Amino acid sequence: MEHARRVAVFGAGYIGLVTGACLAELGHTVAVRDILPERVGLLQAGEVPIYEPGLGDMTLRNKERLRFTLDAEDAVRGAEVAYVCVDTPPTASGDADLSRVWAVVDALKGASHLLALVVKSTVPVGTGRRIRAALDAAGLGHVGYVSNPEFTAEGRAVSDFMNPDRIVIGASDPAAADLIKALHAGVNGPAVVMDVASAEMTKLAANAALATKITLANELATVCEATGADIERVTEAIGMDHRIGPHFLKAGLGYGGSCFPKDSRALHAL
Question: pTM of the predicted model, to two decimals?
């Protein structure tokens, strides 16, 4: 593959595994690092510890280009691009706990050979500015910083990575933006390049918009019950309006999962 890169992915959770496998599928050489010995052991043995359609086959198919390690120094050795795909759980105030993100940044402070540091983890707006300052202070001013949030859904994450609605690339350095855009060569989706803060905000805004549609459907269902209207007929009809669309308008228990509640609270905290 022309312009194949050497990539380190920090975090072998849901997003990190999908990112690493898909980048290997695109022809890049990828080392995925995690801190959990049992998870890394399974992956080294060819077993994928999460179920996601297509992920196991993709991991096996690219085993020559995809490896797993517990050692941060080993993962980043020779890497041109480092991806941060670690968890950012909510704090008591609703903001994000960035301790794992900062642990990765600290681990990279000697990696002067890097060309770019890319954060896929969901972080508060302004995080990139602080990481940029930390890289500069560590003598890594030449390392580009990129915000590249993920918009994958469980059950279709591999498909969403390879055929996305858009690839959001936030960077203040045009060369770094071009590098990450080129890294996605072969992905069937448009790249949208913007500043770092706007990319960070796009992730929170997208999940807030989806959570709002779910909440609206449930509020409408309450009114329908009180008036004798049929919520399914109502949401079917309003969803036919191209300005609204049919997705995320099913009345039910409300929104949940690992992202919508956390990201809605993070946006509220912001």
Answer: 0.92
